[in-house]
Amino acid sequence: MKNALRFGAVILAAGLGGAVLPAYAADTDIKIVLSEDLDLLEPCMATRSNIGRVIMENVSETLTEYDTRNGKGLMPRLAESWSQQPDGSWRFKLREGVKFSDGTTFDAKDVKHSFDRVMSDKITCESQRYFGGMTVTPEVVDDLTIDFKADPVQPILPLLLSLVTIVPEETPIEFIRSPIGTGPYALTDWKPGQQIVLSRRDDYWGEAPKVTQATYLFRTDPSVRAAMVATGEADIAPSISREDANTPATDFTYLDSETVYIRLDSSVAPVSDLRVRKALNMAIDRQAFIGTLLPEGTELAVALFPPTTAGWNPDIKVPAFDPEGAKKLLAEAKAAGVPVDTEIKLIARTANFPKVTEVMEAVQQMLTDVGFNVKLEFHEVAEHEKYYSKPYPTDQGVYMLAAMHDNNKGDPVFTMYFKYASDGRQSGISDPKVDDLIAKASAATGDERAKLWSELAAYVHEDLAADIPLFHMVSYSRVGERLDFKPNIATNGQLQLSHIGFK
């Protein structure tokens, strides 16, 4: 019956065509201008920032939600409540009366299918990476109750599930183009390279948002994005440059949860040599970027999660800028037979953040100055993804990957496994001690959990020089004066339309 209803709803929507869109722009319609186009609108990829800004909690919802806006911590979304059972599993009670945008009813089978789909080896879902090192099994109890059993037991499993978007159980395993969700908005138009339109649903289970329709536009130049808001062509530009943030009434700055870093692959020479990895870190004058290419308030990073995260280690020091020391280490490595003259590509993502081109050009020059042979390449997001996750390409020579990592959830578990475990999807190291500490920390609670994460961070960054942490970023946003909205730490990866009001 559910399949028949869903098929009928799809046919009805197709028959209506553009009729679901308003005939004219309402005062409560808005336009949002983003820095890069989307290659996907796949719900299980919504933890990727450019996709998450559009569909996370707008079209596709999660069981739980971590509140970074009001500091309330973990909150209910599609799950009304949850409790840990005597065997360590977690039981979730689901919200009643929730419907997907195609008119069919949400229940526990949809939750199970969504999780199984995320974990399927037939597709590569972003959110799968957060569940490494554990086996999680969902079991339907009844229509509105589902259990999640984890081995080993996961004390923060409800928090982990805040990253799993829920789709209908009939959703195919392969990536989809038109997401169907339980959120307050439905996708009503997508013209790649031009615009995406989300329209408010009349049958949403929760409180109706103020925004009736959101149109997403794409412009790579931050000055153009800022100007569009200034002239009324757009209402929000989540990311503009510091130079353009010159209007106090509309421009906001905030420390976001993004960390810029360079991933190293320690399995490939010359990066496999510890002296080379340390020299790479010592060659970069991080402080020189602050107040020049990057705004004041940007913080130097010693880990891939921000200082507000549990387990932050204040004793880890930023690698000292020491070009002569870097040259000495390279000379020692060369004398030992390490091929330090090998060309190393530095691969970065186009429009990843304001001034990314200038920042990466400066990093390239600093590395070249101490004797590295570095070639800089920029790729659009879809191409950049090919270098970001395993299996890494083997036909591109030696490369380092410049990237940004977002962890605003307050716990290192959202970073440590997939960035550093031997089989982590975006890891460049393989170290038994790292794997052991990750397993122990993931299963621990309270002070012991924080202590183990702190120990791991020091080992990874001081003893292994596993990668090159660079900056905890400050973001600038421009918001039109007619809107009641202030950006926060989550804005770079998620922009909930329900948080936007009108003055």
Q: Can you describe this structure?
A:
Helices cover 26% and strands 24% of the residues. A hairpin with a 3-residue loop joins strand 8 and strand 9. Strands 11, 12, 13, 14, 15, 16 and 17 form a seven-stranded mixed beta sheet that branches. The protein has a four-stranded mixed beta sheet with strand order 1-10-9-8. The protein has a four-stranded antiparallel beta sheet with strand order 4-5-7-6, covered by helices on one side. Helix 10 runs antiparallel to helix 11 and helix 11 packs antiparallel against helix 12. Mean pLDDT is 93; it is low at 3-23. It has 503 residues and is an alpha+beta fold.
Task: For the structure shown, list the relevant keywords.
alpha+beta; four-stranded mixed sheet; 12 helices; 503 residues
What is the element layout, followed by pairings?
Blueprint: H1 2-16, E1 29-34, H2 49-55, E2 64-67, E3 73-76, E4 79-84, E5 90-94, H3 108-119, E6 135-142, E7 145-151, H4 157-160, E8 185-191, E9 195-200, E10 213-218, H5 222-230, E11 236-240, E12 251-263, H6 274-282, E13 299-300, H7 323-335, E14 343-349, H8 356-369, E15 373-379, H9 381-388, E16 398-406, H10 413-420, H11 432-443, H12 446-463, E17 467-479, E18 483-484, E19 501-502
Parallel strand pairs: 1-10, 14-15, 14-16
Antiparallel strand pairs: 2-3, 4-5, 5-7, 6-7, 8-9, 9-10, 11-17, 12-16, 12-17, 13-17, 18-19
Helix pairs in contact: 6-7, 10-11, 11-12
